[in-house]
Structure formats: structure tokens, C-alpha cells
Automatic annotation (TrEMBL):
<dbReference type="GO" id="GO:0044205">
    <property type="term" value="P:'de novo' UMP biosynthetic process"/>
</dbReference>
<dbReference type="InterPro" id="IPR017926">
    <property type="entry name" value="GATASE"/>
</dbReference>
<dbReference type="Pfam" id="PF00117">
    <property type="entry name" value="GATase"/>
</dbReference>
<feature type="binding site">
    <location>
        <position position="221"/>
    </location>
    <ligand>
        <name>L-glutamine</name>
    </ligand>
</feature>
<feature type="binding site">
    <location>
        <position position="45"/>
    </location>
    <ligand>
        <name>L-glutamine</name>
    </ligand>
</feature>
<dbReference type="Pfam" id="PF00988">
    <property type="entry name" value="CPSase_sm_chain"/>
</dbReference>
<keyword id="KW-0028">Amino-acid biosynthesis</keyword>
<feature type="binding site">
    <location>
        <position position="250"/>
    </location>
    <ligand>
        <name>L-glutamine</name>
    </ligand>
</feature>
<keyword id="KW-0315">Glutamine amidotransferase</keyword>
<comment type="subunit">
    <text>Composed of two chains; the small (or glutamine) chain promotes the hydrolysis of glutamine to ammonia, which is used by the large (or ammonia) chain to synthesize carbamoyl phosphate. Tetramer of heterodimers (alpha,beta)4.</text>
</comment>
<feature type="region of interest" description="CPSase">
    <location>
        <begin position="1"/>
        <end position="170"/>
    </location>
</feature>
<dbReference type="InterPro" id="IPR050472">
    <property type="entry name" value="Anth_synth/Amidotransfase"/>
</dbReference>
<dbReference type="GO" id="GO:0004088">
    <property type="term" value="F:carbamoyl-phosphate synthase (glutamine-hydrolyzing) activity"/>
</dbReference>
<feature type="active site" description="Nucleophile">
    <location>
        <position position="246"/>
    </location>
</feature>
<feature type="domain" description="Carbamoyl-phosphate synthase small subunit N-terminal">
    <location>
        <begin position="1"/>
        <end position="131"/>
    </location>
</feature>
<keyword id="KW-0055">Arginine biosynthesis</keyword>
<keyword id="KW-0067">ATP-binding</keyword>
Amino acid sequence: MKRQLILEDGTVFVGKAFGADVEKNGEVVFTTAMTGYQEILSDPSYCGQIVTLTYPLIGNYGINRDDFETIRPAIHGLIVRELCEHPSNFRNEQTVDAYLKEKNIPGLEGIDTRKLTRIIRQYGTLKGRLCSMEANIDEVVNELRITSFFTDHVKRVSTRDAYPSPGRGYRVVLVDFGMKHGILRELNKRDCDVIVVPYNTTAEEILRLNPDGIMLSNGPGDPKDVVEGIEMIKGVLGKIPLFGICLGHQLFGLAGGGNTSKLKFGHRGSNHPVKDVKTGKVAITSQNHGYAVEMDSLEGTELEVTHVALNDGTVEGLKHKTLPAFTVQYHPEASAGPEDANYLFDEFLQMITNFKKEGEELCQNA
């Protein structure tokens, strides 16, 4: 069975349908990751997006139970050059096709993914629709051009209720803006006593949990839509050590007086070089974001740039000049990707230790 991808600029790609037999709109993006398609499929940061995988062969190691980044995927579609129908891996439990059918996600195979990627790179991300061959192209294009997609991305993917992930170490409140499970795994690995809370949890509610640290997760969409998160960060800043990732980084930038803007086609992949401004060391990182903190907007604020992207010079890390808080735009938990930046979780815990020690010293000297 054939299926077509219709873009808002009138471009049409026709290929083989796989996955669920449904039609879906989405923002068409691409990722350059060569592995990790299961993590991409289940990453909440892809909420509402139709994802093109630039690596040509997808599905050769199947789908397994261990590599999911969320239980409920939020991706709106998957586009590949060639789909493997017979995976070969000792962990394989089902095919990508079977998984997409199970999760009601449409897929498209066999189109020129290189051409599609070049269109996105030239014109920026475009709205598109995966639909049947019977769909009227002109009508779809007109609908895409006048349709505004939803803005409540974070609300759609965040947990509705707080829940614990117990440990015997520091208590960390993890604010779920669309959390990848890899972040929770890294905190659990360090025996943190984690409490995961919804995106709209207030500063007062978080402080009542008496945390030792606060983690701001990744997530989808425009950070300016998450007003609750920005206000919460303002309320906890300086009171509790804070570490933010991806969307959490962008919200921290906004809360500190900076500004964010949409990138032309975003950073999505597992091989993005990022430079530590202080040491000059370069890390290869996993990234998935469509927005960035504007460098110029940080002038006159208390925020300092700690990392920059070598590909385009955008802000990849921030820290507060006087308060215990830092963030990164990339994913130190990887999932999937390199683990060059995994040490940042240890730095977060060390920051908590230092903060508590300073507090104890102040009490003794009072």
C-alpha cells in the first residue's frame, strides 16, 4: 500500500506505507543519528513531529523492552529510506512496523530522504501530512498553510501526578516537561531519592517536598509556552541547587532574563560537537531541540555561557554567576548517543554537597 507525504510548500513524496493506517499532521524534521531509532520513537521531545531518519537502513536490530524513553510515544510519524522487515538481534522482540501499528503511528518508506532533508535544511522545518493516495494535494496544502498546530506540547507529555523513585541518597525533585527515562536512570544509578512532579508544579509545592536538588527535564515545543515552568524556576532559584537539560535549559534562560528563538531546522542527532568555554574541551553530544537561547539576550543578566555548539555557535550551556544553578542544551544522559557529558550528573550532586556544606558553615558561624 502506498502513502504520501504532502508538505505545506506543495512538495509531495510518495512511498510505501507501514505502521498504523492513519493520517497525521506534524512538523517535519530530520535527525542524523545512525543508531537509536527506538529512543527517537519514544522521546517525548518529538511530540507532534514527523521525524525523518537520515541513516538509510532502519529497524535491523528491532524493538526491545529496555530502550524506551517513555511508555507513551508522542511522535506523529516516521519516515525512512529502507525499513528492515526481519531484524536480527538477540534483544529483538518486535519489528518497527509492528510497534508503530501498536502505537497508532504512521510510517513512510522508500522516499528520497536525502532530498527531503535538503529541503528542510534550505527552507527550515515545514508542516506536513502523512496521508493516503486519495487525499487531494491542493486541499491538504491549503489546510496545512492555515492550520496552527497545538501549543500545549508539554502538557500532553508530562506526568499528571507526582510519583517517587526511591533511593537513599540526595532527594531530587525531577520536573517532568517531557522527561526521557534516561535522566531518571542516571539519577537512580547515583542512588538519588527522586520525586517526579508535573510540569505545572509551583515553587511552593516543590519546596514543601524539602529537596536537596531540582532537575529540569527535557521536553517538546516552544519554551515560551511553558509559563508555569518559568515562574517556578524564579521561585526556587538560589534556594535549592538546580540542573536543567534541553527544554529545562531554555526555561532557565528565560527565567534569568534571556530570550529564546526558533532554529531554522534544529539540532537533532547524536554527533553534535560542543565546546566547554572554560576548558576548551570538546564533547560529542546527543541533541534534540528546535529552539535555542539567544547569545545576545544574556548581556546584562546574571547568566554566563559555559558551552557553545561548534557547528553554529549557539548557546549549549549556562550557569548562574552567583547561585547554584547550571544547565545544558544537549543530553548528558545520551539515550541513544555518546556518554561524553555523563559527568554532569556527578557535578550536580557535588554542587548539592557544596551547597549543604556552605549552609552548615553559616549555621555554625551564626
